[in-house]
Every structure is written in C-alpha cells, then in structure tokens.
Design goal:
Elements: E1 2-6, E2 9-11, E3 17-18, E4 24-25, E5 31-33, H1 35-47, E6 53-60, H2 67-74, E7 80-85, H3 94-107
Parallel strand pairs: 1-6, 6-7
Antiparallel strand pairs: 2-5, 3-4
C-alpha cells in the first residue's frame, strides 16, 4: 500500500511581530512544518506495515529551499519526499494548492 501525506510550511509563531501600523511582520519568522501535518506524517508512519511505502508531498514557493525542512520530514518516517517549488505557488489559494498537489501525485505515480 502507498500512503501519501501532504504537508505545508507555516511561519514560526513566536517570530511573528506586530508593526506600529498593527500589521504582522513575518521577516524574522522561519518556516516550519505545520503541527497538524507533523501529526499526519506520524500517523502514516504508525499505519504503515511491512512493504508499505510512505511518500510526503508538498508544494510551495521559495520556503521549500530550506534543507532543515527536508531533514525534518524524512526523519519522521517517509520513504520518499516530493517537493514542487514554483514562484506561482508562493501565495496560492487552497484550490490552486489542491490542484498542484493532485498533479504532483499523479505525475509521480503516488
């Protein structure tokens, strides 16, 4: 059986600041894997049996260049990691993200 876990990167909450104009400043906020998605990766690792394959899949912009993210995901059990990086996905809406994930899964035969 193949198990696909999709994940997204979010800003580190404690590094987000509020500007004097009352807007959020993400300049110092490093990217991390969403806690909910870490739970999904862990659940996939627990569900997988002998011979099962776990693939982690994400799409996004320049934040995906962070090598720490790759190590963090792969250290949690997936056998393969697929990351689709495109500047157009930097601020993609949910529908665009879902279409990109579906296309990547199909292209990689997941």
């Amino acid at each position: 059986m193949k198990i696909i876990t999709c994940f997204k990167l979010v800003p580190e909450e404690q590094d987000i600041t509020v500007t004097p104009e009352h807007s959020l400043n993400f300049d110092r906020a490093e990217a991390k894997i969403s806690q909910f998605d870490l739970n999904a990766i862990e659940a996939a690792a627990q569900l997988a049996g002998d011979g099962d394959e776990i693939a982690a899949l994400t799409v996004g912009g320049s934040l995906l260049q962070n090598s720490k993210v790759r190590k963090d995901v792969l250290s949690r059990g997936p056998d393969a990691l697929f990351m689709v990086q495109d500047a157009q996905l930097e601020h993609a809406l949910p529908k665009e993200t879902a279409l990109a994930l579906a296309s990547a899964a199909e292209k990689n035969r997941l």
